[in-house]
Automatic annotation (TrEMBL):
It comes from Holzapfeliella saturejae. It comes from the Bacteria. Gene3D superfamilies: NAD(P)-binding Rossmann-like Domain. This is Glucose-1-dehydrogenase. Keywords: Oxidoreductase. It is an enzyme of class 1 (oxidoreductase). NCBIfam families: PRK07231.1, PRK08936.1. GO terms for molecular function: glucose 1-dehydrogenase [NAD(P)+] activity. Its EC number is 1.1.1.47.
Protein backbone atom coordinates (compact mmCIF):
# COMPACT_ATOMS: atom_id res chain seq x y z
CA UNK A 1 0.00 0.00 0.00
CA UNK A 2 1.15 3.54 -0.79
CA UNK A 3 0.10 5.99 1.90
CA UNK A 4 0.64 9.04 -0.31
CA UNK A 5 -2.13 7.87 -2.67
CA UNK A 6 -4.80 8.16 0.02
CA UNK A 7 -7.46 10.74 -0.98
CA UNK A 8 -5.82 11.45 -4.33
CA UNK A 9 -8.04 11.49 -7.43
CA UNK A 10 -7.61 9.41 -10.59
CA UNK A 11 -9.33 9.12 -13.94
CA UNK A 12 -9.19 5.64 -15.48
CA UNK A 13 -10.42 5.33 -19.07
CA UNK A 14 -11.94 2.03 -20.10
CA UNK A 15 -12.45 1.14 -16.46
CA UNK A 16 -15.48 -1.11 -16.83
CA UNK A 17 -13.64 -4.35 -17.59
CA UNK A 18 -10.32 -6.18 -17.63
CA UNK A 19 -7.19 -4.22 -16.83
CA UNK A 20 -9.12 -0.97 -16.35
CA UNK A 21 -11.30 -2.59 -13.70
CA UNK A 22 -8.27 -4.00 -11.89
CA UNK A 23 -6.53 -0.61 -11.87
CA UNK A 24 -9.68 1.15 -10.65
CA UNK A 25 -10.14 -1.37 -7.85
CA UNK A 26 -6.51 -1.16 -6.79
CA UNK A 27 -6.70 2.63 -6.69
CA UNK A 28 -9.83 2.31 -4.55
CA UNK A 29 -7.99 -0.02 -2.17
CA UNK A 30 -5.28 2.64 -1.91
CA UNK A 31 -7.89 5.10 -0.66
CA UNK A 32 -8.07 7.03 -3.92
CA UNK A 33 -11.18 8.55 -5.46
CA UNK A 34 -11.70 7.19 -8.95
CA UNK A 35 -13.54 8.43 -12.03
CA UNK A 36 -14.27 5.24 -13.96
CA UNK A 37 -14.85 5.87 -17.63
CA UNK A 38 -16.84 3.52 -19.85
CA UNK A 39 -18.07 3.61 -23.43
CA UNK A 40 -20.67 0.84 -23.64
CA UNK A 41 -20.59 -1.25 -20.45
CA UNK A 42 -22.46 0.88 -17.93
CA UNK A 43 -23.33 -2.11 -15.73
CA UNK A 44 -19.68 -3.18 -15.59
CA UNK A 45 -18.56 0.31 -14.62
CA UNK A 46 -21.22 0.63 -11.93
CA UNK A 47 -20.23 -2.76 -10.53
CA UNK A 48 -16.67 -1.48 -10.08
CA UNK A 49 -17.98 1.66 -8.38
CA UNK A 50 -20.03 -0.47 -5.98
CA UNK A 51 -17.04 -2.67 -5.15
CA UNK A 52 -14.84 0.34 -4.43
CA UNK A 53 -17.48 1.93 -2.20
CA UNK A 54 -18.10 -1.37 -0.43
CA UNK A 55 -14.47 -1.38 0.67
CA UNK A 56 -14.54 2.20 1.90
CA UNK A 57 -13.37 4.02 -1.22
CA UNK A 58 -15.17 6.47 -3.47
CA UNK A 59 -15.82 6.33 -7.20
CA UNK A 60 -18.15 7.44 -9.95
CA UNK A 61 -18.89 5.91 -13.36
CA UNK A 62 -18.93 8.29 -16.33
CA UNK A 63 -19.80 7.62 -19.95
CA UNK A 64 -17.49 9.31 -22.46
CA UNK A 65 -15.93 8.68 -25.86
CA UNK A 66 -12.26 9.22 -25.11
CA UNK A 67 -11.41 9.59 -28.79
CA UNK A 68 -13.09 13.03 -28.71
CA UNK A 69 -12.10 16.29 -27.04
CA UNK A 70 -15.59 16.54 -25.57
CA UNK A 71 -15.24 13.13 -23.97
CA UNK A 72 -11.95 13.76 -22.19
CA UNK A 73 -13.07 17.25 -21.13
CA UNK A 74 -16.12 15.69 -19.51
CA UNK A 75 -13.94 13.28 -17.54
CA UNK A 76 -11.67 16.04 -16.22
CA UNK A 77 -14.61 18.27 -15.34
CA UNK A 78 -16.22 15.39 -13.47
CA UNK A 79 -13.07 14.64 -11.47
CA UNK A 80 -12.76 18.28 -10.39
CA UNK A 81 -16.46 18.85 -9.71
CA UNK A 82 -17.03 15.57 -7.84
CA UNK A 83 -13.73 15.19 -6.02
CA UNK A 84 -12.11 18.63 -6.17
CA UNK A 85 -8.85 17.72 -7.90
CA UNK A 86 -6.94 15.47 -10.30
CA UNK A 87 -3.66 13.72 -9.50
CA UNK A 88 -3.43 10.71 -11.81
CA UNK A 89 -4.73 10.07 -15.32
CA UNK A 90 -4.67 6.53 -16.74
CA UNK A 91 -5.16 6.11 -20.49
CA UNK A 92 -6.28 2.50 -20.48
CA UNK A 93 -9.14 2.37 -23.02
CA UNK A 94 -8.16 0.42 -26.09
CA UNK A 95 -9.36 -1.96 -28.75
CA UNK A 96 -8.05 -4.51 -31.20
CA UNK A 97 -9.36 -6.62 -34.06
CA UNK A 98 -7.69 -9.03 -36.39
CA UNK A 99 -7.22 -8.32 -40.10
CA UNK A 100 -4.62 -9.25 -42.66
CA UNK A 101 -2.96 -5.98 -43.60
CA UNK A 102 -3.90 -6.41 -47.27
CA UNK A 103 -7.57 -6.58 -46.23
CA UNK A 104 -7.51 -3.94 -43.46
CA UNK A 105 -10.06 -1.25 -44.27
CA UNK A 106 -9.44 2.41 -43.60
CA UNK A 107 -12.48 2.40 -41.29
CA UNK A 108 -11.02 -0.39 -39.12
CA UNK A 109 -7.57 1.23 -39.17
CA UNK A 110 -8.96 4.62 -38.16
CA UNK A 111 -11.13 3.37 -35.30
CA UNK A 112 -8.23 1.56 -33.60
CA UNK A 113 -5.93 4.58 -34.08
CA UNK A 114 -8.67 6.91 -32.80
CA UNK A 115 -9.17 4.99 -29.57
CA UNK A 116 -5.68 3.68 -28.82
CA UNK A 117 -3.48 6.56 -29.96
CA UNK A 118 -5.63 9.66 -30.37
CA UNK A 119 -7.49 8.85 -27.15
CA UNK A 120 -4.18 8.59 -25.31
CA UNK A 121 -3.04 11.91 -26.78
CA UNK A 122 -6.28 13.71 -25.88
CA UNK A 123 -6.40 12.35 -22.34
CA UNK A 124 -2.73 13.10 -21.74
CA UNK A 125 -3.06 16.62 -23.13
CA UNK A 126 -6.08 17.35 -20.94
CA UNK A 127 -4.29 16.09 -17.83
CA UNK A 128 -1.07 17.95 -18.71
CA UNK A 129 -2.85 21.27 -19.09
CA UNK A 130 -4.68 20.78 -15.82
CA UNK A 131 -1.46 20.03 -13.93
CA UNK A 132 0.24 23.04 -15.54
CA UNK A 133 -2.69 25.37 -14.83
CA UNK A 134 -2.75 24.23 -11.21
CA UNK A 135 1.07 24.38 -10.99
CA UNK A 136 1.17 20.91 -9.45
CA UNK A 137 2.94 17.62 -10.11
CA UNK A 138 1.01 14.79 -11.70
CA UNK A 139 1.26 11.27 -13.06
CA UNK A 140 0.03 10.13 -16.45
CA UNK A 141 0.05 6.38 -17.04
CA UNK A 142 -0.54 4.95 -20.50
CA UNK A 143 -1.46 1.33 -20.99
CA UNK A 144 0.47 0.27 -24.04
CA UNK A 145 1.39 -3.32 -24.94
CA UNK A 146 4.29 -5.63 -25.60
CA UNK A 147 3.36 -4.91 -29.20
CA UNK A 148 4.90 -1.47 -28.98
CA UNK A 149 8.08 -3.57 -29.31
CA UNK A 150 7.05 -6.94 -30.77
CA UNK A 151 5.60 -6.93 -34.33
CA UNK A 152 2.18 -8.61 -34.52
CA UNK A 153 1.13 -9.84 -37.96
CA UNK A 154 -2.60 -9.34 -38.74
CA UNK A 155 -2.73 -6.53 -36.14
CA UNK A 156 -0.88 -3.79 -38.04
CA UNK A 157 -3.22 -1.03 -36.84
CA UNK A 158 -2.96 -2.14 -33.21
CA UNK A 159 0.83 -2.43 -33.31
CA UNK A 160 1.11 0.96 -35.01
CA UNK A 161 -1.09 2.53 -32.33
CA UNK A 162 0.98 1.11 -29.49
CA UNK A 163 4.27 2.03 -31.14
CA UNK A 164 2.88 5.56 -31.36
CA UNK A 165 1.93 5.51 -27.69
CA UNK A 166 5.50 4.58 -26.79
CA UNK A 167 7.07 7.61 -28.51
CA UNK A 168 4.21 9.89 -27.45
CA UNK A 169 4.90 8.90 -23.86
CA UNK A 170 8.64 9.45 -24.16
CA UNK A 171 8.18 12.81 -25.87
CA UNK A 172 5.73 14.12 -23.28
CA UNK A 173 7.89 12.82 -20.44
CA UNK A 174 10.89 14.72 -21.79
CA UNK A 175 8.87 17.85 -22.45
CA UNK A 176 7.29 18.14 -18.99
CA UNK A 177 9.77 16.50 -16.60
CA UNK A 178 10.90 19.95 -15.41
CA UNK A 179 7.35 20.50 -14.15
CA UNK A 180 7.41 17.22 -12.20
CA UNK A 181 4.72 15.82 -14.44
CA UNK A 182 5.63 12.19 -14.99
CA UNK A 183 4.47 10.24 -18.04
CA UNK A 184 5.00 6.49 -18.19
CA UNK A 185 3.83 3.41 -20.07
CA UNK A 186 2.83 -0.01 -18.85
CA UNK A 187 3.24 -2.73 -21.49
CA UNK A 188 1.10 -5.75 -20.60
CA UNK A 189 1.80 -9.09 -22.22
CA UNK A 190 -0.67 -11.98 -22.21
CA UNK A 191 -3.21 -11.13 -19.50
CA UNK A 192 -6.38 -12.98 -18.47
CA UNK A 193 -8.97 -10.41 -19.55
CA UNK A 194 -12.43 -10.76 -21.15
CA UNK A 195 -11.00 -9.95 -24.58
CA UNK A 196 -8.69 -12.98 -24.29
CA UNK A 197 -11.11 -15.35 -22.54
CA UNK A 198 -12.10 -17.35 -25.60
CA UNK A 199 -8.50 -17.78 -26.73
CA UNK A 200 -7.24 -18.92 -23.34
CA UNK A 201 -10.18 -21.34 -22.95
CA UNK A 202 -8.79 -23.21 -25.96
CA UNK A 203 -6.03 -25.55 -24.66
CA UNK A 204 -4.10 -25.36 -27.94
CA UNK A 205 -4.07 -21.56 -28.07
CA UNK A 206 -3.26 -21.39 -24.38
CA UNK A 207 -0.24 -23.65 -24.90
CA UNK A 208 0.90 -21.63 -27.92
CA UNK A 209 0.77 -18.45 -25.87
CA UNK A 210 2.49 -19.78 -22.77
CA UNK A 211 5.27 -21.13 -24.98
CA UNK A 212 6.02 -17.51 -25.91
CA UNK A 213 6.41 -16.53 -22.25
CA UNK A 214 9.60 -17.40 -20.34
CA UNK A 215 7.64 -17.61 -17.07
CA UNK A 216 5.26 -20.09 -18.76
CA UNK A 217 2.11 -18.58 -17.32
CA UNK A 218 -0.55 -16.01 -18.20
CA UNK A 219 -0.66 -12.80 -16.18
CA UNK A 220 -3.54 -11.42 -14.14
CA UNK A 221 -5.07 -7.93 -14.43
CA UNK A 222 -4.02 -7.31 -10.83
CA UNK A 223 -0.37 -7.63 -11.93
CA UNK A 224 -0.84 -4.63 -14.21
CA UNK A 225 -2.79 -2.80 -11.49
CA UNK A 226 0.13 -3.23 -9.09
CA UNK A 227 2.44 -1.59 -11.61
CA UNK A 228 -0.04 1.27 -12.06
CA UNK A 229 -0.26 1.87 -8.31
CA UNK A 230 3.54 2.09 -8.09
CA UNK A 231 3.76 4.50 -11.02
CA UNK A 232 1.02 6.64 -9.47
CA UNK A 233 2.77 6.79 -6.10
CA UNK A 234 5.70 8.80 -4.80
CA UNK A 235 7.71 5.57 -4.68
CA UNK A 236 8.32 6.15 -8.39
CA UNK A 237 8.80 9.93 -8.16
CA UNK A 238 12.14 9.74 -10.05
CA UNK A 239 10.72 7.60 -12.87
CA UNK A 240 9.45 9.07 -16.12
CA UNK A 241 9.44 8.14 -19.80
CA UNK A 242 9.69 4.38 -19.32
CA UNK A 243 7.68 1.40 -20.47
CA UNK A 244 7.28 -1.00 -17.57
CA UNK A 245 6.63 -4.36 -19.22
CA UNK A 246 4.35 -6.66 -17.25
CA UNK A 247 4.75 -9.67 -19.49
CA UNK A 248 6.44 -12.63 -17.79
CA UNK A 249 9.44 -11.99 -20.03
CA UNK A 250 7.63 -12.05 -23.38
CA UNK A 251 9.77 -9.17 -24.67
CA UNK A 252 12.98 -11.12 -23.95
CA UNK A 253 12.95 -13.00 -27.28
CA UNK A 254 11.94 -16.35 -25.76
CA UNK A 255 12.79 -18.21 -28.98
CA UNK A 256 16.42 -17.77 -27.96
CA UNK A 257 15.94 -19.35 -24.52
CA UNK A 258 18.35 -22.12 -23.60
CA UNK A 259 20.99 -20.69 -25.96
CA UNK A 260 19.10 -21.52 -29.13
CA UNK A 261 20.00 -19.81 -32.37
Amino acid sequence: MYQDLNQKVAVVTGGSKGIGTAISRRFGEEGMKVVINYNSDEKGAQKVVDLIKKHGGDAIAIHADISTEEGVSHLLETAVSEFGRLDVWVNNAGMENKHETKKLTLKDWQRVIDVNLTGTFLGSQKALNHFLDEDKPGSIINISSVHEQIPWPTFAHYSASKGGVKLLTQTMASEYARHHIRVNNIGPGAIKTPINAEKFDDPKQLEETTNMIPMKEIGEPKDVAAAAAWLASNESKYVTGITLFVDGGMTLYPAFMDGKG
